[in-house]
Amino acid sequence: MTHSIASDALSPQTWPRALWQRCRTLWLLKLAGNTVATLGFFPLYFWVMQNAGPAWVLPLTAVDRLIAFWPAMLPVYLTLWAYIALPVLLAKDRRELNTIAIGCAVMTAIALAVFWWMPTAIPNFAIDAALGSSLHFLKTFDAAGNAFPSLHVSFSVFACLVLARQLREAGAPLWLRLLNVVWAVAIVYSTMAVRQHVLIDVLGGFGLGLAMGFALRERPSAAPVPVAA
After folding, report:
1. Is 67 helix (H, G, I), strand (E, B) or coil?
2. 125 in a domain, yes or no?
3. How many contiguous H segments (helices) and E segments (strands) does the chain have?
4. What are the tens digits of pLDDT across the range 149-196?
5. pTM to 2 decimals?
6. Residue 3 belongs to a domain
7. What's the CA angle centered on 34, arms 32 and 39, to 5 degrees?
8. DSSP codes of every residue in 94-149
9. Domains of the chain: total
10. Of 157, 158, 140, 155, which is closest to residue 196 (Cα–Cα)?
């Protein structure tokens, strides 16, 4: 009697176990790598912000004028850091983990190069960011020059594409795969709702994340080899 390992993984009854197995795989390396990457990103990011030249202010579009300022979306905006950790957590092996790391590194390098050579900023919106609030801290801490392309959007789109494949491979139900897309869309929308980005840099970030997600997608594996029960 034989059975296919892949068919077990795709069974609706076993998708939680398939996801849990992915989480357990190389968990210590994932934790260390994600921590080092996050801590290493910010000094480089803010060094570029502080040393780049004067920023060019991006123009507004009709879409920007339609989207209302919605400070309640700030918590959604901040969930990016949890969202981009999920593809790392669900990487099934070292090869997939390396692919995700390469994608994030290349997107970061491209964006920082653009920030350095062509710094851009959003218009100075007249918004009510109360002194001491989280939104006021964000506006003060995140300097101009980093508008186009939006790394927030790039990472969201890239993570969404990787998670979509991971959830599909694990046989996750449709509602969970839809939740992944809804989360990514909410983060992208939040970048405009809290007035951190405008449509032009959102589109730039979307294109960068989409290109990297498809460029680094894994090729289909060979058919599973039956094994003895």
Report:
1. coil
2. yes
3. 12, 4
4. 999 999 999 999 999 999 999 999 999 999 999 999 999 999 999 888
5. 0.82
6. no
7. 95
8. HHHHHHHHHHHHHHHHHHHHHHHHS-EE---------TTSHHHHHHHHS-SBB-SS
9. 1
10. 140
